[in-house]
Amino acid sequence: MSAEGATSARFAVAAVDIDDTLVGPDGVISPENAAALARLVANGTRVVLASGRSHANMLPFHRALGLPQGPVISAGGAVVQDSDTSAVHFMHAIPADEVAEVTRDGRARGFALQHYRPAGIHVETRTRWIAYDQARNSEPHRRVDDLLATGARDDPPADVVKMIWLGDPDAITAAVDEAHARYDARLTVTRTDPPYLEFFAPNINKATALAEVAAGLGVARAQVVAFGDGNNDVPMLAWAGVGVAMPHAHAAARAAADQVAPEGDPETALARAVAMVLADDGRH
User: Fold this and answer.
1) Packing angle between helix 269-282 and helix 31-42, nearest 10 degrees?
2) How many CB atoms lie under 10 A from the CB of residue 118?
3) Confidence band for 151, pLDDT divided at 50, 70 and 90
């Protein structure tokens, strides 16, 4: 649906996080959440999934919801691709020298590593945390001997859009402050789930991607609503015309949001959030 076709709705675009927002702890879209998004679409709102997952790992959710063709925000905002053709609208890669430094630093700390690249999610070790991540995602990891090897060249890869340190949550916690101190001036660093510390190109997050999507659709910021729960949702919730946090959201996400959905079953939190927004819409 075009942005022009959404003029009857207060919100032309709804950005929706996946993990612990669209899906609950069981990793499944509840019928209530699916119905809520269908209601938004029927009202003329374009629903845009926005996740730290790879594009391939997001497509099953887009298809399960029966969403119309449109942009999908993946890799925490580093990439936007078309849902049907996978054509890349934009991609923000991490500078190659930063890729090399973060990779070597993560290895030295004993973490498992992931590189998100257009060809897929690359890993160089098999650990319990790599297996944990694979169990949460449908796209098979691509095993390589050396994440920094690029064939005949010695240069690190130039198409990495996201890096992850994966490890024991206590070890990740111990590394967070030092990682921020070392990299914040050069990269975006975000603690997502307990075993994950993620790295992106500077000033790249879900908000920057959502702003580019909205601009491309000719949609004003005030016409965008965002739903999320995690630390990587904080910029998006703050940027949107209305940001709505799930009741179980991280403290930073709740603080960034304009509204917090009513308490209740986490599997249906998004449905309550959408109902709240639509009820508010009816009062305008």
Assistant:
1) 30
2) 15
3) low
| pLDDT given at position 153 | 60
| Residue 4 pLDDT exceeds 60 | no
Task: Please count the other Cβ atoms lying within 10 Å of the Cβ belonging to residue 139.
Answer: 16
DSSP letters for 62-121: HHHHTPPS-EEEEGGGTEEEETTT--EEEE-PPPHHHHHHHHHHHHHTT-EEEEEETTEE
User: Rounded distance, CA 279 to CA 120, Å?
Assistant: 41
CATH number for the domain that contains residue 236: 3.40.50.1000
The domain boundary, picked from 200, 228, 249, lies at 200
pLDDT at 10: 82
> What's the start-to-end Cα distance of the chain, in Å?
23
Does residue 7 have a pLDDT over 50?
A: no
- pTM of the entire structure? 0.92
Among 137, 168, 200, the domain-final residue is 200
Count CB-CB contacts under 10 A for residue 44: 16
CA neighbours within 13 Å on the CB side: how many for 282? 7
Task: Assess contact for 231 and 250: CB atoms under 8 A.
Answer: yes
Specify the pLDDT at position 189.
Answer: 97
